[in-house]
Structures
1.
Amino acid sequence: MNPLDLPVLSTVEDDFSAQLDRLLDWQDGEASAGIELAVREIVQTVRERGDEALVEYTNRFDRRQVDAAHNLEIGTERLEEAVSRVPVDQLRALQGAAERIRNYHEYQKESSWSFTDPLGNELGQKITPLERVGVYVPGGQASYPSSVLMTLIPAAVAGVDELIVLVPTPDDRANDLVLAALHIAGAHRVFSIGGAQAVAALAYGTGLVPRVDKIVGPGGAYVAEAKRQVFGHVGIDIIAGPSEILVVADGSTDPEWVAMDLFSQAEHDAAAQSIMLCPDRAYIEKVRDLMSDRLPQMVRADIIRASLEGRGALIQTRDMSEAITVANRIAPEHLELHVSNPDDLIDDVRHAGAIFCGAHSGETLGDYVAGPSHVLPTFGTARFGSPLGVYDFVKRSSVIRMSPAGAAELADIAVPLAEAEGLHAHARAAAVRAGQS
């Protein structure tokens, strides 16, 4: 096997900024004109023809022979049967991860609150769980029971009334581990539907699939484009891009640990991105040599190579402060601080989906069992996005209860503001509460 051709960059190079821009430029996540048009047709067809369209698309795209829409639903008994078929060690792992995820998200629960101002007005905020949430679970080339737990459990902790899950089963093959995870996580109804048609069904409802208030969960390019198109008719979580990891290292960690963490993201797919920032050139070379040496041992070596050579890099910085500056510019999904004292740096981290502090805090543990959801902002959206959590499954309503004296006094402020905006009925509505003519 040829040596790994992993780029090594340096921030002292005159064109480093341009090099970094090229490295971070990911066009595959933007739907091509062909995908956009295809998805638009699918969404419109499902909206118009409902269950009939779902059956047709499922048979065509998933190579199935469903004769009626009701056969697309996966009953509770089938989920329970899957639990009984899962190997004991895997079932225990699912249950252990579910417990940790549930415990973590209990801390995110918000409460309604109120206060009374000096005028006797009661003001506050009411927290209300969403009524119905749709969760998309990939079931094609990749099946991730961990994502089932990471999406459904925060919604369940939030108190969502009904969790509707759509998961494709190409060639009529369902993944027992995914079905078992759905049972453990508390799915209420499950349908074997995938692709853009699944998103459309959740957004608009059909005779079989109920309309939901919000759609969450990862998917391929067609699913992502469908979520983009239905947003506004329904809430969505994020438009996710390829998985990312950024390691900031000071040279104190065993280089093999860093190499394996970079590999762990690269093995997702060729579009995944693995980057390391470090001021120590000798350490960078150690990591690079070790990655080249270990690559032939990896089961998914071809995918890892394509990812690292296409979108990966090892970057030498002037110092650790500059490493954090560059990290904030990248705004990664996963940020690992492989440094002797993470507390010295964490306050300066502004943009990251999840921050793993210290060498023992491997991102892989976060993917499965640490507790926080692994559904994270990608492609630089950590600049404004957050991990999926309980707060994504609740609404906040303002509560306003005015006292007679408060209404009268505040009218003196509201009336001139309304008149200045030319909204005289607004002004009048405030004035009558103050006894003004």
2.
Amino acid sequence: MPNSGTIATILITDDDAGQRSLLESYLTGQGYRVETAKSAEDALARLKERRFALLISDVRMPGMSGLEMLGRVRHDWPDLPVLMVTAFPDIRGAVEAMRDGALNYLEKPIDFGELIGLVRKAVGKTGAPPVKPANHIAPPEGVIAESPAMLAVIRESALAAPSEVRILITGESGVGKEVVADLVHRLSKRAAGPLVKVNCAAIPENLLESELFGHERGSFTGASNQRIGRFEEANGGTILLDEIGEMSPGLQAKLLRVIEDGSFQRVGSNRTRHTDSRLLASTNRDLESEVASGRFREDLFFRLNVLEIHVPPLRERSADIIPLAHAFAKEFGGGRPRLAPATIAQLEAYSWPGNVRELRNAMERAVLMAHGDLILPEHLPRRVQSAAGQSEAQPSGAGRMDEVERAVILQTLRENGFNRSETARALGISRRALLYKLQRYREQGFPTESE
């Protein structure tokens, strides 16, 4: 369908306000006009009022589903390109959508590279102008990042921050997931409000509900006073639920209610309260596997995982090791300590299984052990000192295996027309694992996009 203006206008349909906000923010930044609809019925009404270059719609929505709407659109506006958005349990429905004439479908969480490629393909038929290039985003003050992988995390965080979208921050323990949460809050419209952090793994299960939702006096043994919960504290701001994979199934159900309409009850109270807070969650677990094993609610996973930001381990962003080490040395040494060249070599040779947290602890020890302003290798923990010898003993075949894996993945990607979802299924790995590998290949200079 031709667009009526010089700039393509896209209609986004999703019952999730966070998802609508995220897509609107991204596509507007890419140079498109965007309108949003919160239901299929609303979208059909808008289609009757004006012409759009592209319709992007969620599959699962209350009332009329995205697939039902697609059938109506195909009948009344047969030339309108339609892009469906789905979660992985909806693959069968997505295939049905393709048969019914959808341009393509995207899996949640959405990969923006795949999204913009499909949007360009669709609106290019309508004469839309080229999209605007993304602006370079430098690390904000207090955030140390020089590696391409970490700079990409900062760009994703800055892109998502102005929206109200829920974000799932993933990565190994100690990689800096809280740094991402801090950054998102700082760059959001809620920056003037509180940022409340709750470590779900550090609080006993029988007390976590009270921590989150509060309790009334006398509601349980030891509840001598009334207490407001962390969701009430976060009203007007942001709440981070760290290590959410440790939450019990019963609490998961109550959290789902808060996500859906902001309502909750204090322990020992029948009064329903409401909170206006943006939810961020983090985990070092593979929640898709947790869902498959029945340990994590599927509906909660998809509500949390509107956008996933993965923080790579320190061993995969070696360019950040020395800048972080310098920063920690200055923090603990009052700005005086310097790193000897041999110390830098030791730090770079170590694999840092404990990630940034381990590096911070190592530098704190080194500053304490140093007698002067110069940090020497012997001031580092013993395991770090022995890293150089261990790295030399690594088998040379490991590099060749990496090369073989990369060749297989890139070849499969080309065979599937650079469609990441189909490539992941063909390889028998998760889409998320594929995206991580492709990001690493891009940093190494290998092509991961169609020309």
3.
Amino acid sequence: MRKGMCVVLGLTLAFTVSAQAQVWDELADGGGDAGDVLPLQQTPGPPDVPLVAITGTIDSSTDVDCYSIFIPAPTAFFATTVGTPGTLSDTQLFLFDKRLDPTGAGPLGIIMNDDHPGGGTLRSTLTGGVGVSGPEDFGSVPAPGSYMLCVTGFNRDPVSPGGTIWAPGSVGGSFAWESEPIGPYAGPGAPGPHIGWTGSTGTGTYFIELGGVATKPEPGTLSLLALGGLALLRRRRS
């Protein structure tokens, strides 16, 4: 097996088999309400352990809770509120790339979901693979790295600097989801970094079940992951 691939797979395995799997609670572990924009999100810990769930409360009509997560293997990623405990019956999930857009204005939208594509529920599911979650789950997780996962109730939606938002059922959407496969906002680096939220929502508790997710790694682990990815890239080019 190639050295670079060994590094990446080894780190992924370390995240997924650790005995310290973490369920993070917004209040008990985070100490209060999670913020709704970068850099006010909560960062679950301790570092370098699998993150299997996040729990919390949408406690007002304008509340949005955001969390910093690490995705070591994009195709293994999922986040869902379907079939989980909680009183918030109509959820929305959003995933943002924490790297700043070219203007330095804010993170870019990667995936969102309002109602689970399988139907039968108003709860939400995100997955990391391409085209596996239906028309309200645009694109895919582009690469291993740090992302911002946000949860709210319907109909509290993200805002870009131009004031546009993603709207369920709209043609092509109106918020710029970076990985959207078609339309004017398609492709990496699409315009419209996230700066806030609009609309109002119901209130209640939520439980987000996670897969293929870890807490933020130590700097040394991140460096190893970057080296492994670089080794893979070099081999592909040679």
